[in-house]
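Researcher: Good morning. I'm working through a list of sequences from a screen, and I'd like to move beyond sequence-only analysis. For each chain I'm collecting a predicted structure so we can compare shapes side by side. This is the next one on the list. No need for commentary yet; just the structure.
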Amino acid sequence: MTGHQNCNHKLTRRGLIGAGLGMAGAPLMFAPSALAQQGGGKGQRILVILELSGGNDGLNTVVPYGDDAYYRLRPQIGIKQARLRKLDDHFGLNPGMVGMEKLWKDGKLAVVHGCGYDNPSFSHFTSMAYWHTAAPNSGEQYGWVGRLADTMAPSSPANFLINIGTSQSLAVRAHRHVPVVFNNPENFQREAFYEEKDALAAVSDPGKIPNASRRYLLDIAKSANDASALVRKAWSDYRSPIDYGIADLGLRRVAAMINAGLPARLYYTSYANNAFDTHVVQNDLHGRLLTYTSDAVSGFMQDMERLGRADDVTVMIFSEFGRRVPENTSLGTDHGAANNMFVVGKRVKGGHYGDVPSLAKLDAGDNLRFTTDFRRVYATMAETWLGANASTVLNEKFNTFGMFA
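Model: Good morning. Structure tokens for this chain:
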């Protein structure tokens, strides 16, 4: 387990799964055997969340080339106007973001400026926990995506919440739901010695077992077998001519699950391993990271169009903080505060949202002052896209953006 268990010693389904029914590459993943049931289809709105871990430099992503202060504060790493993919007479995208430039031109990309929170943390771990739980400077134990799943589907239907990754994110930790967590679909199966595999595969029908405790254990075991088979089949059945670029960031696997008709409404994936922590000689590396991200997001949206699901799917992209405004002496940037977020989708009304932070009024640490509470974006996803009660999810009322057609 990875520290996301309830702090008690009672035998719970979640605890039992974590303790004794591990799967290759996924420490925590199963609901009851109904997990194998399918039923997702067109018309069911889906939210895909992409995390850019490490603290993406928002100022060199959506570049305010119309503001002279940007070039004064970044004389070496500031990206020249002629190289940018211009959005308008003030902002331009990083040169590598060809795919997202097209999404902008098609009216499918929203940029939300100045996203952050009061008393920001500059620790990757702490700030990411705040974004995962949507509860800055608190001890919230459940993730906001997990709470969203609990609110949308309190009866906790199987297969509702999928996390692509080598371990479960705090963001998807829920009270009622057990997320399906996997990284490599081909290896998504129960861990066992070779000699045990046949016995584990031949699980008795739990409904025919009179002993309640044994029936409970067999139900969990059967769910493990069913889930692994379902995910592997979805992946093996998926074929796509769409180019996702060098790194698909888990989005190709999301597309495969959507293509298979899984009833999942919430997907979580990430550009992992603190990739965006660009302290030293930033520009070339950062440009490559943004190219990979842009290509993957653009490819995914093309795939949704091909599958006839573009009207049903929205992607939200965030990072745990931005970078300090002035460049450092190593031609990189240090941990900062406010940042931009992105929302992509066919139903999205593209454009700029939120107030743009001033480069002339930085805080005492030379950071952008946040102008948009990031939870306003979460509330918009929950309420205006998915139809959930955002106040229940976020434990507070936040004004939403009119972002969807």
